[in-house]
Amino acid sequence: MKTKYLIKELEKYVASEVMYLLEKYNCIVAGGAFTSILTNKEVNDIDVYFHTKEDFIACMEDIKSGGSLDSDDSCLSSFGLIYLGHSKKSVTFHQKNANCNIQFIHQGFYKHPMDVFADFNFTINMVAVTIKGEKKYLHKDAMQHLSQCVLVTNGGTKFPIMSVLRVDKYKKRGYSISKKEMLKLILACSGLNL
């Protein structure tokens, strides 16, 4: 699998104006979007990560400075992004020209694109691309686990409860999870300070 293939497929879901932003701020696109692309499923949303807090802030300011109001009183930036909302983890926009949501993640910042994988729940989602420089990054077992339709747990995931809830979603898509992997998720949950 070549990087150019992943970027070309990503361009089907990300408007050219937004691809410009992703390159300008050296963003990392990673996660479930590539799982969907590699398994010929519809992409629901695109998760975008940043190397630094400064890059995230500059990107948001760039989007805001290109903003105006459309007839629905929703913020529509010159990048074709309509603000949907934000949380402690991300800011979400809908792309008018690509019909797909983009989540700009700010829960953490990552020196290296593979550092993002430490937060992920399953190896099948551990695929990342940087638009600037056109490089891809994969967990060593990501492609094997995707081809086998098996869920292998990242015991260090930051969000193990959400991961447990997502198991059912993946089972409906044809994935299986062993008792050992489910136990890893449960043990990760037990380590949370709730």
Question: What do you see in this structure?
Answer:
The model is unreliable at 68-74 (pLDDT under 50). It contains seven helices and eleven strands. The protein is α+β, with helices and mostly antiparallel strands and 194 residues long. The protein has helices at residues 3-10, 16-24, 32-38, 53-65, 142-148, 160-172, 179-190; strands spanning 28-30, 45-49, 67-69, 75-77, 81-86, 90-95, 101-105, 127-130, 135-138, 150-151, 176-177. The chain has a seven-stranded mixed β-sheet.
| SSE pattern, N- to C-terminal | HHEHEHEEEEEEEHEHEH
Helical proportion, percent range: 25-40%
Coarse morphology: globular
Distance between the termini: 41 Å
What is the radius of gyration? 17 Å
Proportion of strand residues: 15-25%
- Which regions are unreliable across 5 or more consecutive residues at pLDDT < 50? 68-74
Main sheet characteristics:
7 strands, mixed
Number of helices: 7
- The count of β-strands is 11
Mean pLDDT: 90
Which secondary-structure class do the elements indicate?
Answer: alpha+beta
What spatial order of strands do you see in the largest sheet?
A: 5-6-7-2-1-8-9
Summarize the structure.
By secondary structure, this protein is of the alpha+beta class. It has helices spanning 3-10, 16-24, 32-38, 53-65, 142-148, 160-172, 179-190; strands at 28-30, 45-49, 67-69, 75-77, 81-86, 90-95, 101-105, 127-130, 135-138, 150-151, 176-177.
Secondary structure layout plus pairing:
Blueprint: H1 3-10, H2 16-24, E1 28-30, H3 32-38, E2 45-49, H4 53-65, E3 67-69, E4 75-77, E5 81-86, E6 90-95, E7 101-105, E8 127-130, E9 135-138, H5 142-148, E10 150-151, H6 160-172, E11 176-177, H7 179-190
Parallel strand pairs: 2-7, 10-11
Antiparallel strand pairs: 1-2, 1-8, 3-4, 5-6, 6-7, 8-9
Helix pairs in contact: 6-7
